[in-house]
């Protein structure tokens, strides 16, 4: 007998599972329930539609009810909400157009996604405040923009949805401010990397307020700057914890998401500590007839081993495919996520994979780190830009734990190579050896990834001691000398107080000017000359350290 | 006592070795001999300087004699040619400005590179014919262009130097023709991939003549189209094997290179079958005091295990670094090359890594192949383009053997991920699992590399049978039906003769129209719908195959 599979949620995980199921089993009965009006839309494109970067709303609809039914012979039911799972009878309860009915299953796949957090802040139900999850949300924001013509907007939350929304609202010419409660935006990035992104947002007219949070929303007494529809969707005044107030014609609330676990919870399925549905490596919930995938589940973090929420489309799509495989008897494991993520931040691209320092510290994993700044392609070929590559690796064998990159160009390439490396347990030694494809328009003979590998191995082999700028404040200044090995011009332009200038090319002759009774912290702009200085001085008995990443990284 | 190291060749491998040696040993005596006027120039940038893409000649000089001496305290000797190695006395013989002298060594590093082949074709010494290896060559070509103002040029040899030169001469407005003796240009690519590149060259006004070779050059009797300097650097008439003749104001001879092995040979060092200097994994020649790196050596091909010539800058730079490491007692192995290469061909990027079909056949390695065509980033985000990804893998465990990609955008990223995968012995199953970084401007939730992995695993698991267009001609047409599952419009626009049209979305209803006594070869534009058709038809008992890569790939 043909098996009957019900799928709850018709977008990334759900639609992927449906399509794959059909390809594996031409005879199965497959019903796809979607609460919203649309299945298979491009969540990730929503902010770009608001900014007119994606010019047509239709482009967001990757598949439609009709196209899925025609191609995959799937019974697609939009505007059908599953409201209960009756595991005993293997049935679900559905509400559609006010009608309630039941549908039986052999297998059930849950891909209900995650819902935006809406904290209980006074006034949060003001009609000019929106969350961003689906077509409906984006249609409402779009209408608000058309009708109110906002001039000022505020984005609450500096996660990637918030930042993408901020950038796209700015594209429309609005004054946009981002408010972030944490010390930096974009949690996958460590502080110093996120700083570069905050700076570029600022330079593009998007101020970012960190370490502050909204405590109240209230209708603005006197109308603010926007026009039209005042009564209903008028301006909002935001009061922050710091006491600061802001007004906005439009507020985007993007303070994170939480797994849609209600159905699963009420059905008595195991829920993890982070609130996600618990699944085994085959993506089976605690009920073997029920699979769950996507934003709603907890997955094993491949680096630190902890169960985590990693709400990203790549994993959701792949998990949907694997759940279908397993329902068709294939025994495929999902071996965990590593949190590979990327986003555009104005002129910059920011990308991360694996764990960052915060995560490693939390997990109690020892690590070393290194920063390199390398050109996106050969310096002599026009159009290149420098990117900052941060890698984290184990102190013993140099196994990669995480990487973060910020730059204008070629960032996506390097993060994907590093993501591949992390997934396969590679070390900094492996990075140094990789044979990547080189021609001047694309790379350098030593690619930024190789360079990160060289520098990492140099640290591990003890060929150079490194110190990080953020370690300096805790040290007694009388115990070290800052040695600036840049050129006179660079030094004059700006330098940390008290730094001793000896350009690297003069070091050998002027070696006697360097004190022998202190640690020497050599630095240059990005770290290469500082490293060379170390290699010149160390054999002469100096206790010398390179300031990793150079002066530029921390100047920001 | 400080060791004394001599290096022969001052560019990619030699200069890299010199810099690394100094960083590892502040006290060593290091002398760098370079026959030419310049060290450390950007060989790979030379064609782009001719095309004014690199606007300043100075940009090509990555390091100079002065900068290397100042920073690394290296005795740099340009215009010093080493003419003999006296291994017994551990000395070399040098000629500089007509003077001959000897210099002793503890260690010697050979990085003399490779020289352009100049076949003994009658008339090949005509002064309008140039090879492209160094600054001197490029200065001469530059002068020729300035003085003769060529309107027609011919590039002989469709390797990457030839193609880059052709594109850059075309940039200057010249009529450029490429002549290639083999069946296709760019040997790292298989025929059908190279075809796309030949086509784009053609579309950009650069006709490519394949399967033909020059048999004679002669001064053109009546001046051709160029102006100036007729007497000396006048036009050339080329006669081809086919009988065709061409005239040109400028001829670039780029028919390949051979290792500069003369010094090594005369010194009695072991030379390999391919003419390269033989080295062990530590890059030591048959004389343990002498190391050799770069274009001059034979390296182990990591895929097929054969000793090969892989004259590329990435390997040369890394080998230089490793030779220095080993001279400083580090015991680092160079574990072989995989031939990762990339180049720009007008609007396209072409990249390859590992072995191609020709190499695998030659090596007798069994393989399967798959083509996928995937967008460089999410289809709904503007600016994306499709790329064709070809992967080759073992028929049993699916281990990757090679990859080739042609596309407009994002090709460099995917080849580097695949190069990393090949280096670490990954399989198509691993590709399917990779968690790459996704946001709409950069990729799709299923990256082209994942997609190649899915399709590869589908083939290996027997989920789909594939057939390749190049296998069809050998088959009896009465044994199969070509089933076109594209839309009516696509079919009407063009289709192979005799193809039966049933759009994929109509297959289920029209299944009775499909003959059951023949093989069914389903095809669409790129292969997805063909695959889906297979998954629909196979369960109904059809002997059905997907034509890998779809119609488009072979239409060219
Ligand atoms: C604005 C935005 C931008 C993003 N950008 C990126 C990006 O650049 N890169 C990236 O990797 N990820 C991005 N994501 C995240 C990505 O979209 C999600 O990780 C992915 O869509 C999760 O897939 P899913 O199937 O778990 O959930 P979803 O795709 O959200 O689908 C869940 C669906 O289930 C439906 N549903 C829930 N409960 C029920 C029920 N009881 N009955 C019927 N239907 C129900 C919901 O209506 C919803 O449509 C972005 C998300 C948003 C919102
Ligand atoms: C036009 C062009 C474009 C290229 N593009 C690319 C590309 O895009 N990507 C890529 O990976 N590779 C490219 N390459 C190849 C790359 O440049 C070489 O692989 C690399 O330079 C090899 O390094 P090497 O040190 O072995 O030789 P070289 O860099 O050629 O240096 C050898 C030097 O040794 C000197 N020498 C030889 N014999 C003696 C002697 N007896 N005494 C003193 N000096 C001597 C020579 O004068 C020469 O300068 C390109 C090459 C050319 C010519
Ligand atoms: C589109 C969607 C329904 C998935 O459909 P899908 O058919 O599984 O995915 P694709 O169209 O990418 O096709 C992939 C299939 O084609 C196959 N394929 C791809 N290229 C191929 C080629 N050239 N030849 C043969 N097969 C090919 C793949 O192997 C895969 O099939 P498999 O899973 O059976 O191995 C689902 O991803 C979706 O709803 N996406 C939009 C929502 C979303 O993802 N949001 C978050 C990101 S914005
Ligand atoms: C330039 C050239 C002389 C090599 O010099 P090099 O000093 O070894 O190379 P780079 O300038 O790239 O610097 C790399 C070194 O800096 C280190 N480094 C790079 N970034 C760093 C950073 N941010 N912090 C600390 N160290 C850094 C690397 O670890 C490496 O040192 P190591 O080898 O001791 O580990 C040589 O490559 C050359 O002549 N190139 C031109 C010719 C050529 O390559 N042609 C073919 C391609 S066109
Ligand atoms: Ca329907
Ligand atoms: Ca000198």
Describe this entry's structure for a reader.
The structure is a homodimer of 556-residue chains. Chain A contains 16 helices and 30 strands. With 556 residues, chain A is an alpha/beta fold. In chain A, the strands form eight sheets. Chain A has a five-stranded parallel beta sheet. Chain A has a five-stranded parallel beta sheet with strand order 9-16-10-11-12. Chain A is globular. The interface between A and B is large, with 86 and 86 residues. Bound molecules: flavin-adenine dinucleotide (FAD) (2 copies), coenzyme A (2 copies) and calcium ion (2 copies). The site of one flavin-adenine dinucleotide has 33 residues of chain B, from helix 1, strand 2, helix 2, strand 4 and helix 9.
Write a concise synopsis of the structure shown:
2 copies of one chain form a homodimer. Chain A is α/β, with parallel strands linked by helices and 556 residues long. Chain A has 16 helices and 30 strands.
SS summary, helix count of chain A: 16
The radius of gyration computed from the alpha-carbon positions of chain A, rounded to a whole number of angstroms, is: 27 Å
Secondary-structure content class of chain A:
alpha/beta
Sequence stretches where pLDDT stays below 50 over 5 or more residues of chain A: none
Strand content of chain A: 25-35%
Between the first and last Cα atoms of chain A, what is the distance in angstroms?
65 Å
Bound molecules: flavin-adenine dinucleotide, coenzyme A, calcium ion
Shape of chain A: globular
- What is the number of beta strands of chain A? 30
Question: Order of strands across the widest beta sheet of chain A?
Answer: 3-2-1-7-18
Largest interface: A-B, 86 and 86 residues
- State the helicity of chain A in percent bands: 25-40%
Main beta-sheet strand count, sense and barrel state of chain A = 5 strands, parallel
Give the integer mean of the pLDDT values of chain A.
96
């Amino acid at each position: 007998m043909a098996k009957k599979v019900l799928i709850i949620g018709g977008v990334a995980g759900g639609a992927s599972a449906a399509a794959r199921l059909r390809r594996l089993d031409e005879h199965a009965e497959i019903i796809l329930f979607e609460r919203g009006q649309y299945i298979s839309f491009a969540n990730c494109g929503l902010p770009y539609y608001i900014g007119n970067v994606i010019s047509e709303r239709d482009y967001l609809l990757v598949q439609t009810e009709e196209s899925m039914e025609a191609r995959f012979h799937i019974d697609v039911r939009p505007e059908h909400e599953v409201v209960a799972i009756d595991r005993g009878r293997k049935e679900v309860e559905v509400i559609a157009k006010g009608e309630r009915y039941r549908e039986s299953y052999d297998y059930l796949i849950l891909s209900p996604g995650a819902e935006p957090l809406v904290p209980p802040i006074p006034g949060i139900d003001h009609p000019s405040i929106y969350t961003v999850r689906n077509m409906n949300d984006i249609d409402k924001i779009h209408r608000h923009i058309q009708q109110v013509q906002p001039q000022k907007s505020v984005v609450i939350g500096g996660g990637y949805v918030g930042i993408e929304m901020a950038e796209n609202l700015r594209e429309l010419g609005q004054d946009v401010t981002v408010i972030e409660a944490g010390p930096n935006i974009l949690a996958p990035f460590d502080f110093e990397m996120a700083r570069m992104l905050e700076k570029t947002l600022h330079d593009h007219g998007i101020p970012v307020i960190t370490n502050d949070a909204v405590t109240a929303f209230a209708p603005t007494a006197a109308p603010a700057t926007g026009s039209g529809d005042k009564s209903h969707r008028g301006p909002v005044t935001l009061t922050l914890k710091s006491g600061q107030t802001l007004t906005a014609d439009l507020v985007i609330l993007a303070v994170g998401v939480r797994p849609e676990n209600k159905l699963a919870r009420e059905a008595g399925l195991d829920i993890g500590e982070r609130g996600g549905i618990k699944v085994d490596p085959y993506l089976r919930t605690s009920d073997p007839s029920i699979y769950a995938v996507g934003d709603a589940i907890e997955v094993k973090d491949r680096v630190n081993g902890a169960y985590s929420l990693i709400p990203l489309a790549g994993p959701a799509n792949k998990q949907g495919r694997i759940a279908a495989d397993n329902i068709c008897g294939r025994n495929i494991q999902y071996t965990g996520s590593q949190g590979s993520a990327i986003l555009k931040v104005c002129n910059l691209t920011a990308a991360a994979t694996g764990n960052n320092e915060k995560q490693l510290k939390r997990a109690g994993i020892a690590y070393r780190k290194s920063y390199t700044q390398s050109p996106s392609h050969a310096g002599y070929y026009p159009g290149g830009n420098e990117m900052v590559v941060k890698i984290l690796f184990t102190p013993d064998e140099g196994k990669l734990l995480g990487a973060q990159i910020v730059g204008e160009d070629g960032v996506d390439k390097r993060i994907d190579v590093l993501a591949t490396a992390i997934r396969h347990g590679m070390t900094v030694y492996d990075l140094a050896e990789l044979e990547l494809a080189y021609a001047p328009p694309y790379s350098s003979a030593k690619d930024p990834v190789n360079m990160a590998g060289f520098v990492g191995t140099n640290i591990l082999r003890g060929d150079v001691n490194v110190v990080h700028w953020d370690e300096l404040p805790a040290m007694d200044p009388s115990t070290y000398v800052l040695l600036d090995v840049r050129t006179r011009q660079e030094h004059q332009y700006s330098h940390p107080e008290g730094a001793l200038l000896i350009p690297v090319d003069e070091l050998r002759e002027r070696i006697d000017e360097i004190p022998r009774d202190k640690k020497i912290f050599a630095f240059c702009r990005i770290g290469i000359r500082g490293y060379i200085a170390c290699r010149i001085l160390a054999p002469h008995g100096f206790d010398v350290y390179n300031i990793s990443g150079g002066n530029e990284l921390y100047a920001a």
